[in-house]
Amino acid sequence: MSIVFIFLLLVSLSLFFLPKRIQYPVTLLLVVSMIILSGQVAMQAFSSTKPVNISFMRLFGEEVFLVVDKISAFFVLVINLTMLTGILYAKGYLKPYLPEKSKTAMALHYFSFVWLHLSMLLVCMLRDGLSFLIVWELMSFTSFFLVIFESEKASTIKYGIQYLIQMHIGFAFLLVAFLISGIITGEPIGFESLEKYFSTQAVFPLFLLFFVGFGIKAGFIPFHTWLPHAHPAAPSHVSGIMSGVMIKMGIYGIIRVLTFIHTDLLAIGIFLLIISFISGVIGVILAIVQHDIKKLLAYHSIENIGIIGLGIGVGIIGMATENYTLAALGHAGGFLHILNHSLFKSLLFFTAGNVYRQTHTRNIEKLGGLIKKMPKTAFFFLLGAVAISGLPPFNGFISEFLIYLGMFKELHTGDLLLSLLLLGGIVGLVLIGGLAIYCFTKVFSVVFLGNPRSYHTENATEVEGSMFISKYIIGFFIVFIGLLPLWVLKPLTGVVSVFTPNVSALIDVTPSLQGITISMSIFILVIGALWLVRKWMTKTKTIETGPTWGCGYTGANPAVHQYTATSYADYVGNLAKHITGTRKHYKIIEKDEIFPAPRKLETHSTDIFEDYLVSKPSGKLLKFLDRIAVFQTGNIQHYLLYAIVFMILILVLTILNLL
Amino acid sequence: MVLNPLVIFLVSLVFPGVVARTKAKIVGRKGASVFQPFFDNVRLFQKGNVYSKTTSWIFQIAPVIYFSTIFMAMLFIPLGKQPALLSFEGDFVVFAYLLAFGKFMMIAAAMDTGSGFEGMGANREAFYSLLVEPAFFIVIASMALLTNHTSFYDLFNNLHLESELSYLIAILSVYIFLWIAMVENSRLPVDDPKTHLELTMVHEVMVLDYSGFDLALIQLANGVKFAIYGALIFNFVLPMQDYFATQLVIFFIVQLIFAISVGVLESFRARNKMSKNPQWILSLSALAILGFLSVLIITGKIILMD
Questions:
Q1: What tens digit of pLDDT does each residue of A110-154 get?
Q2: Distance between CA atoms of A425 and A422, rounded to whole angstroms?
Q3: Measured between CB atoms, does B188 come within 8 Å of chain A?
Q4: Which B residues, 211 through 230, put their C-beta within 8 Å of a C-beta on chain A?
Q5: What is the domain range of residue B49?
Q6: B137 at the A interface (CB within 8 A)?
Q7: What GO MF annotations does this protein's record show (chain A) (predicted)?
Q8: Which of A427, A521, A548 is the mutation pick for testing B, counting most B CBs within 10 A?
Q9: Which of B107, B115, B153, B155 is the best mutation test for A, with the most CBs of A within 10 A?
Q10: Which residue of A has its CA nearest to B91?
Q11: Which residue did the predictor score with more confidence, A43 or B305?
Q12: Across the interface, which of A408, A527, A549 has its CB nearest the CB of B64?
């Protein structure tokens, strides 16, 4: 294995010396070979009952093993799929940047891409603490370099560094958590020592440390503040990968830690359920008020992390209360949603990337009517939008369905607390679903439908066909999982069985999933048949075109006389103004103003978590540091004075025997 | 089984007519025949289409998908002892999400016209349906809690087996479903179908630019949607009857009463102020939670006194 590693290192380093046009094929080759290698290991893990153990390398004299169980294998497959579609999409997306970027800049980008892939694979495979933390760090660094690809923009660097800082806060929590478990159990730090720690010590405090550490990566509210900035700053294929799989590494970490916890699960389950509920609902509410398409999608990642957390959370509650139906279905839904989200979120980011590439703006208020100019992009965006809203017959529905079914089935059997928690979970999923529909009807309509809102869309044309290869692959999986969910249930059963001793509930769910397959097939047939009938009926009829009905008035500027994203979001913005911090600035029309002059209305929205957890504290810190800066006068005499004062202080302290 | 969608569809053809007739009678007009909406649709099916230049294929496919979702939803409805064509655990989730898919497409279609009015209607539709959705799921959750079953058929057929108290829950659920049906079908007090000002419409304004075949499909679908909710209400109140014929008679009576009560409610109620709608719709969820709490008491999970 170490030979493969050294080979990979050397080839990826050679990227820096290759001419620009060969860099991409080499990267593709590297990514594909990693996919084949790790895919084989994952398949092996899926088919065997025990985790696959592979000797990796020697680190500081210690032998490091790759341990691949079914959970790791599942994540490996998710990573590989998105990295493949990501690198395929990157070719077309990076093309406009090629002339202006230097050879080294491109090489750095590709190099980071390869190493992000490798580090994510290793994160899922390493169990030993030291090597895990190293690859975790590697993952943050490589993704940082990917984010700051457009480093000539000041904001990109700013948000990149913000991302890096937050990742290191998370890292500090993980380090402390690993150290505590290592010191108390006396074993070498790593996941294996957790088994002993959790069986002897209080579970919740250490879990909380891990949760914060991994939760910052995953983007649970209130640790999400890096996401809405880093995703828009990054190039679109990177946003797709970060949102599709990298944040799932945080989920992986939480799941991995949970596999070692066998006591006190109820408190953890309730905690997960509550924080996921908050992440889901507030994530989507904050998404609704965004105007930057990629920022909006970033907030949706938080929402989907909430759905995943809801699934895992009710699964854990099921484990704690020994309701294995709930446990199996909750976990299955959560895991499936990890895969599903990686599919539709990367699809949405890639299509948003198409829009950005052709219009050079991410502000949806400046777009509109793109469906006529970019029909294929519009189609795939719609597919992603419907899938992410959890609507049938697509994949997002299946994972939500499993979670729903688990919750509804156990309402009766559990005690009062469980029934109330499950009701909360159900209401959470319903609210998230409704808000997601609200949000995605908004984005899709404002970007692709209606009339163009600015000059940005004038020269937009469809992107070249090769940029759609990745989208066809993702689209296939979205429809496949939506129509034939039984096919994914079997591998999923293996993954869930790592957690839950009894997975018979996943066999009992077969008739329901068959029912979904049948009804969705009928559904598609009905649509097809009806479409044909419609065609046949209207064939001989006169079809006219005219202007849109505007109460008989056609003189208005069509771009102005249509609903904007802001007004669409207004209802939710008003309802949740304490979360979104929506403020409107306008001049009221005075009573004596008979002929009002033209005036403006501006709305602003913020994220209260960011305000109170990041901006305000760091602002206060900076103010304090400013005050300290009075010592920095730039005058050499003052600096000499400080030295003398310091020396006298030392002298006095020594004489007084205080040192 | 095959009969269920058939009778629901039959009812849906005259349902809007009965509502309109009731309203006419109450205000002292003679009113059109109950088949008038049906004849209107037949006429529309034979007409050509006018499309706005702004619209795209979304606008054309939306009515087809909308009708298909409602058609599919119809297949999920059991009638008493007659199971639905499609019945499995969790079918009500598919039912609700299918309806949501139809709404998604209709909202997109309204936005496709690039009209400020239709955008406003679409926005309101999205907002109101997101607010009303929890009420439906909480009512179903109360029933699942009471019966320990998770399909429409089992939920309704086991509702009254355990305890007589379940009739209380049924009454509350019928009340909630009645109002959910009013919101989902864009009737008073949330939306007034007979308003003439685009600014105050919700559903009517969304379909302003539709004509011919597409408009007929949408109106047909709306009728079916009403009849579906009527069928659900029928399932709540159905006393256990063994003969299908008696059930069928009761079904038609319940639908008739439902249609007449919609007409009566619409005649004696003014439309809410737009800004009051969210609170009003959310109060349905609050009521549903009350129902859930009562079921917790019935099932002995909340013990009030020794």
A1: 999 999 999 999 999 998 888 899 999 999 999 999 999 988 888
A2: 5
A3: no
A4: 212-214, 217
A5: 3-130+186-272
A6: yes
A7: NADH dehydrogenase (ubiquinone) activity; oxidoreductase activity
A8: A548
A9: B115
A10: A512
A11: A43
A12: A527
For helices A395-410 and A293-320, what crossing angle results, to 10°? 30
Torsion of CA B92, B94, B95, B98, to 10 degrees: 160
Indicate whether B201 pLDDT > 80.
no
Burial bucket for residue B256 (CB in 10 Å: 0-12, 13-18, 19+): middle
A314: helix, strand or coil: helix
Looking at the structure of chain B, the number of domains it has is: 1
CA atoms within 13 A on the CB side of A90: 26
Q: Copy the structure tokens of residue A652.
A: 């006095």
The owner of tokens 């003398």 is A644
Question: Which of A484, A392, A511 lies closest to B93 in space, CA to CA?
Answer: A392
Mean pLDDT across chain A, nearest whole number? 89
Q: Which helix (H) or strand (E) element contains residue A311?
A: helix A293-320
Per the structure block, which two tokens stand in for B296? 């917790």
Q: Where are the beta strands (DSSP E) in A418-573?
A: 543-546
Amino acid letter, residue A511: P
Average pLDDT over residues A191-197: 87
pLDDT tens-digit profile of A223-233? 888 999 999 99
Residue A554 has pLDDT above 80, yes or no: no
Residue B261 tokens read as 């009560």
Whether the bond into A222 is cis, omega within 30 of 0: yes
Residue of A379, A419, A514, A563 to mutate for B, most B C-beta atoms under 10 A: A563
Residues A41-50 have pLDDT tens digits of: 899 888 888 8
Contact A207, A254 (CB under 8 A): no
Would you call B196 helix, strand, or coil by DSSP?
A: coil
- Asked if residue B201 is part of any domain, the answer here is yes
CA-to-CA distance for A147 and A145, rounded, in angstroms?
A: 5
pLDDT for A508 equals 86
* Closest among A178, A187, A188 to A210, alpha carbons compared: A178
A598 DSSP 8-state letter: P
Specify which residues B51 forms β-bridges with. A545
- Using an 8 Å Cβ cutoff, are A189 and A179 in contact? yes
Q: 């108390």: which residue's tokens?
A: A184
Overall size of chain A counted in residues: 659
Sort residue B163 into left (φ over 0), alpha (ψ -120 to 50) or beta: beta
What's the average model confidence in pLDDT over A558-580? 83
Query: pLDDT band at residue B196, thresholds of 50, 70 and 90?
Result: confident
**Which amino acid, A458?**
E
Interface of B with A in 25-54 (CB under 8 A): 45-54
In chain B, what residues touch A401 (CB-CB under 8 Å)? 90, 93-94
Query: How much is the pTM?
Result: 0.93
Q: Kindly provide the residue ranges of all beta strands, DSSP E only, lying in A69-165, ordered along the sequence.
A: none
pLDDT (tens digit per residue) in B50-109: 888 888 999 999 999 999 999 999 999 988 778 888 888 989 999 999 999 999 999 999
Structure tokens that stand for A551 in this block: 């109460």
Residue B89 within a domain:
yes
Q: Is residue A576 scored above 90 in pLDDT? A: no
The 8-class DSSP code of residue B83 comes to -
Compare all CA atoms of chain A with the CA of B303 and give the residue at the minimum distance: A416
Distances (CA, A) of A102 to A27, A89, A156, A216: 17, 21, 18, 33
The verdict on residue B210 lying in a domain is: yes
Tell whether B115 is covered by a domain: yes
Name the token pair of A570: 């207004």
- ipTM of this predicted structure: 0.94
Q: Give the Å distances, CA to CA, from A47 to A69, A494, B38, B186.
A: 10, 9, 59, 53
For residues B73 and B224, what is the distance between their CA atoms, to the nearest angstrom?
9
A515 neighbourhood in chain B, CB within 8 Å:
86-88, 91, 94
